[in-house]
Amino acid sequence: MKFSFSLEKKDISARAGVLDLGHTQIDTPVFMPVGTQASVKAILPCMLKAIGSKIILSNTYHIYLRPGVQTIEKLGGLHKFSGWNRGILTDSGGFQLFSLSSLRKISKDGVIFSSHIDGSKHFFTPEKVVELQSRWGSDIAMSLDECPPYTKDKKYIKDSLDMTINWAKRSIEARKMLPLRGLFGIVQGGVFDDLRKEAALRMRELNFNGFAIGGLSVGESKDEMYEAAGIVSELLPEDKPRYAMGVGRPEDIIEMINLGVDMFDCVMPTRNARNGMLFTRFGNLNIKRKEFAQDDRPIEEGCRCYTCKNFSRGYLRHLYKAGELSFYTLATIHNLYYYIKLAKDARSAILNGEFALFRKHFYEERGYG
Predict the structure, then answer these.
(1) What is the pTM of this model?
(2) What band does 369 get if pLDDT is binned at 50, 70 and 90?
(3) What are the residue numbers of the active site?
(4) Domains of the chain: residue spans and CATH
(5) Is residue 178 packed enough to be buried (19+ CB in 10 Å), middle (13-18) or exposed (0-12)?
(6) Crossing angle for the helix pair 250-258 and 326-351, nearest 10 degrees?
């Protein structure tokens, strides 16, 4: 099962590479749309392909509970089941278990949790999480981690880090017995510089195919998030992909690319689309506003997405106000196109040695100065 990553060019710290999964190749930097339930909300796989998506993310916690691994196996594996034949990364469920703290109990062995659907009890171990992702055919699986909340309690973060490293070692061992294309380890450490360094150095010694920076966007400040990502990126291997989990806003992606990160995911473009918030080169646009009722312009002048080539702001506002389901589809197409193109344009700038200029223009166009 092929998995390789090649670094094509660096522009200071920003990186352009190619991730080869055998059946599909992915240029990096890359934004991965989130398909929590084995489906990206409001749009179809053919639409994702049309906007240029090569890889999506699905959620281990959710698809384990519903429909369950046996159903996915019976129906041909995750790619066939979801109708998506390009890349699929599945997370470990660690963040969801963090979010559902009232429903779970963590020990050195794993996590006991109650289903948010029916209250049934379940037990995730590092070994089981790797097995699940192998059984349904993930291209990139994530090792189980504890995603700690934002806290200044250094002892708690240190204990959590140690447990995550131990789980990572167990995941590597479990992987030896299973067919699995790629497995990533997750670097934790909270907002403590020395713990982030320790976590990165200990994790890089393990035989993972790539590494994720976890514990971001959990309550820390922007400066703390960028500081943590910068420390970890500097210490991770040059020849393996780096993934910032759950990031984020357009400016977050630009800053993370500037720090040497390759892969991103976030629910923001799809969730905001359904709430009427649309992303453009010139800032965010709230389609609910009355001023757009008779506006015949597209969401963004010059945008080549299906929505902007065919529909006006006035029509989209009408769909939103009327509660038409087609609004969710059209808005999601635009927002994901914006995010995917942002990563592609950053890649082009890196290859041309112009990322600093690209970053400067990005902020100027979005009104940051």
Answers:
(1) 0.97
(2) very low
(3) 91, 265
(4) 4-266 (3.20.20.105), 268-369 (no CATH)
(5) middle
(6) 20
